[in-house]
Amino acid sequence: MAAARDLRATGMAGPGDEDAVDLARRHLIQPWPFAGSVGEEARALIGEGDGIYITDSTGKRLIDGPAGMWCINIGHRREELAKVMYDQAMALSYNTPWYTMNAPSAELAMRIAGHAPGDLSHVFFTTGGSSAVETALRFMQFYNNVRGRPEKKLILSRGGAYHGSTYLSASLNGRPRDRDWMDGADELVVKLSSPDPFRRPKGMSLAAFTDGLIDEFRDTVARVGTERIGAFVGEPVQASGGVIVPPDGYLKRIREICRDNDILYISDEVVTAFGRLGHVFASGDVFGIDPDMITFAKGVTSGYFPLGGVIISERLLQELRRSNHPDAMFGHGLTYTSHPIGCAVALKNLDILEDSVLAHAREVAPYFQAQLKTLEELPLVGEVRGLGLMGCVECVADRESKDPLQLDKNVGKRIDAHCHELGLLVRPLINMCVMSPPLIISREQIDDMVRILREGISRTMDDLRKEGVWRG
C-alpha cells in the first residue's frame, strides 16, 4: 500500500489497489490468458520499483528476478531516463516517420551500428521485439521479390524458439503450448530440432549431438531446396524456451551453411542484446558470427519505453539499390517507427551501459552462474544452465528419465508462489524457473536471490511429497 500512498502524495494517484484489482477483473484482458478466465483475471499488482527491487500491493519488497521481462537492464527508478523522457517530450513528442525524421533516431542508428558485427550498418526502428522480427521477415520477402526470386520465402526455425506474438513472428515459435490453439503461417515455416544439450538422447556425446543438429540443418536445406528457403531465424540463446545455450561452435556452423546456400541469417537478439550477455550484441562478441540481420528490443531502453529494431547488412541494401526495380517500395512501416522519445531514452540507456554496466555484468556473470549451479544439489532439480545474466532451473521428476513432472506441469508456478512470499519474483515456465535479474545486481544480492530460490524449491518439494505427486 505504500506505493499507492506515495503516488497519491504526488498528485498522480490512480485507483486504489483494491479498485485496480476490481477494474482489471471487469475490464482488462491480460496477455496469454486461458479461455476459462479471459477478461476476468487480476494478476499480482506491482506498485513501484527501485534498483533491482519491486514492491507489490501489500508493500512486500521483491527482487525482480526476471528484470520485468528480460528488459530492466539498468534497474528501476533511474532518474536520468525519466528526465530524458520529459525533456524530449517537451522538445518534440512525436513526428510522422512517413515524411519527416528526428535527430535522436539518426544518432541512435549510428551508435547501434557501431556496436554491430560485420557490415550491419543500417537500423529500422520498431515498437518492440515482435514487430522487429516481423520487420526482418517482411524485409527478407521484399528483398527476394526485388531480386526476382518470389519462391525464396520459407523460414527455418527451431523447437523451443520464441520470436514474438504477431502473426508471422508467432508462426516461428516452437515452445510447448504456444501454438496449440493459435493459427499461423505454417506454410512458410520449416521447423528444426531444439539445440538443447540436456534433452539429447541418453549416452550421446555433446559432439555427436552437435553434429546431428548440423546434419539435420544441411539435410533440410537439401530436401526443401535452397531456392525456396529465404531465412533462418535463431536466438543466440533460446530465452523463453528455457535459456537453451547451444553447443560450442553450433551457431558458427549454421552460419556457414546459410552463407553457402544464400539463406539470410537473422539473429534474434531481442533478449540477448544490450548487456544480458555482457555486450551490446552477443552475436559477434560472444558467438563469433556476423548475421545478415539482428533484431533487438527490450534492453535497448531498459524497458522504460517501447522500442525495438532491425539492423540490416549493407550488402543487402546495396543489392537492392543495384536491382532493376528502383521504384519497388518496401511497403512496411509503423506509426511509432523511430519515435523521438524512445530513441532519446535509448541513447541515454546506451550511455549508462557503456559507462559501467556492461563491464559489471561481465564481472558478476560467472558468480551468478556458479551460485545458481549449486541448486543442482536439490533432488527436484534436473539441470541449472545459463550464460551471462540468464539462468534457468529445470525441475524433473527423476534425473534418469528427465521426466518433466508429467503429474504436475505447474511446478514453476508453485516455486514462484513460495519465492514471492520469501521476497523474490521468479519467471515460471511450466517445470522451469527462469532468472534474468537487472544487470546492476551485486554479489550480495545474487546470494539473496539464490538463497530464496533454494528455499522456494525446498518448500515445493515438501508440498509435492505431502500431495503424493512426487517422492523425490
* CATH class group of the largest domain: Alpha Beta
Span between termini = 40 Å
Flag low-confidence runs.
Answer: 1-13
**Total beta-strand segments:** 15
**Count of domains:** 2
What count of helical segments does DSSP give? Answer: 14
Protein name: Aspartate aminotransferase family protein
Cofactor: pyridoxal 5'-phosphate
Family: Belongs to the class-III pyridoxal-phosphate-dependent aminotransferase family.
GO molecular function, one term: transaminase activity
Can you give a write-up of this model?
The chain is of the alpha/beta class and 472 residues long. It has 2 domains: 1-76 and 356-467, Alpha-Beta Complex (Aspartate Aminotransferase, domain 1), CATH 3.90.1150; 81-352, Type I PLP-dependent aspartate aminotransferase-like (Major domain) (Aspartate Aminotransferase, domain 2, 3-Layer(aba) Sandwich). The chain is 39% helix and 15% strand. The chain contains 14 helices and 15 strands. It has a 7-stranded mixed β-sheet, sandwiched between helices. A 4-stranded mixed β-sheet has the order 1-2-3-13. α12 crosses α14 (443-467) and α13 packs across α14 (443-467). It starts with a helix and ends in a 5-residue tail after the last helix.
